């Protein structure tokens, strides 16, 4: 998520980054964090949901300011308050569900694990919608973020395999996230292939893809004029003016 935060800050925009996805991901880490702690998984896996929740909330705050035009301090205070509520919820889940779990009643823990997995998957759907609106283009979303998250899911799967007991539910969760994010990258790759000629023409014209497409749709007014044509036109105008002045003198 750090590459996404940096990209948002650098371009000063969160266009194409759904606020809903970030909030759903952040809140999904509450049951996910409780689940991995109660199951006593490897320490890196227990820490991962906490870090992801914080980073998702930071990115969510960026969308509040840049997309929804909130005041900075309003967004910061809202984010801190939301994070505090999430932390309290996770602590209560761990304490409340650990008691029956030690007595052999494990369905509540299984339920929150499934809930977390479903929410993680649903959180990625807004990205598919944004991509569909743009013909598969992952605009605004950092491909470095997607690559990093895919690697994170992959190594988390390896960590589960390395445990003495493989957690099937955790494995399914990471597999679903990995598959959905690979799907997003494939869609973007298809868009890159389909627009390769347009992007090459834009590069030759010294424009971005969006600028080139916009100027093309605007027609002659939006088209970038060639310097040689402009100078040629100026020379013709000068000749015409000289001819006119000469005619006046003869009269």
TrEMBL record:
<feature type="transmembrane region" description="Helical">
    <location>
        <begin position="109"/>
        <end position="129"/>
    </location>
</feature>
<dbReference type="Pfam" id="PF04193">
    <property type="entry name" value="PQ-loop"/>
</dbReference>
<feature type="transmembrane region" description="Helical">
    <location>
        <begin position="74"/>
        <end position="97"/>
    </location>
</feature>
<keyword id="KW-0472">Membrane</keyword>
<dbReference type="InterPro" id="IPR006603">
    <property type="entry name" value="PQ-loop_rpt"/>
</dbReference>
<dbReference type="InterPro" id="IPR051415">
    <property type="entry name" value="LAAT-1"/>
</dbReference>
<feature type="compositionally biased region" description="Basic and acidic residues">
    <location>
        <begin position="233"/>
        <end position="251"/>
    </location>
</feature>
<feature type="region of interest" description="Disordered">
    <location>
        <begin position="207"/>
        <end position="251"/>
    </location>
</feature>
<keyword id="KW-0812">Transmembrane</keyword>
<dbReference type="GO" id="GO:0016020">
    <property type="term" value="C:membrane"/>
</dbReference>
<feature type="transmembrane region" description="Helical">
    <location>
        <begin position="141"/>
        <end position="162"/>
    </location>
</feature>
<feature type="transmembrane region" description="Helical">
    <location>
        <begin position="20"/>
        <end position="38"/>
    </location>
</feature>
<feature type="transmembrane region" description="Helical">
    <location>
        <begin position="174"/>
        <end position="194"/>
    </location>
</feature>
<protein>
    <recommendedName>
        <fullName>PQ loop repeat protein</fullName>
    </recommendedName>
</protein>
<keyword id="KW-1133">Transmembrane helix</keyword>
<feature type="transmembrane region" description="Helical">
    <location>
        <begin position="50"/>
        <end position="67"/>
    </location>
</feature>
């Amino acid at each position: 998520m750090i590459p996404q935060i940096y990209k948002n800050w650098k371009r000063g925009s969160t266009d194409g980054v759904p606020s809903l996805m970030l909030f759903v991901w952040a809140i999904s880490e509450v049951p996910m964090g409780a689940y991995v702690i109660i199951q006593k998984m490897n320490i890196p896996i227990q820490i991962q949901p906490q870090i992801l929740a914080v980073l998702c909330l930071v990115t969510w705050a960026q969308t509040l300011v840049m997309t929804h035009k909130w005041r900075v301090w309003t967004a910061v205070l809202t984010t801190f308050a939301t994070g505090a509520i999430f932390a309290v919820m996770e602590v209560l889940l761990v304490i409340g569900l650990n008691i029956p779990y030690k007595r052999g009643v494990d369905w509540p823990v299984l339920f929150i694990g499934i809930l977390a997995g479903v929410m993680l998957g649903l959180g990625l759907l807004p990205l598919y919608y944004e991509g569909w609106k743009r013909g598969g283009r992952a605009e605004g979303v950092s491909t470095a973020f997607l690559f990093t998250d895919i690697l994170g899911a992959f190594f988390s799967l390896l960590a589960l395999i390395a445990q003495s007991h493989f957690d099937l539910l955790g494995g399914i969760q990471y597999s679903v996230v990995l598959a959905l994010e690979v799907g997003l990258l494939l869609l973007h790759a298809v868009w890159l292939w389909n627009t390769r000629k347009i992007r090459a023409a834009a590069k030759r014209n010294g424009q971005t893809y969006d600028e080139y497409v916009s100027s093309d749709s605007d027609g002659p007014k939006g088209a970038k004029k060639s310097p040689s044509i402009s100078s040629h036109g100026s020379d013709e105008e000068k000749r015409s003016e000289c001819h006119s002045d000469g005619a006046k003198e003869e009269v």
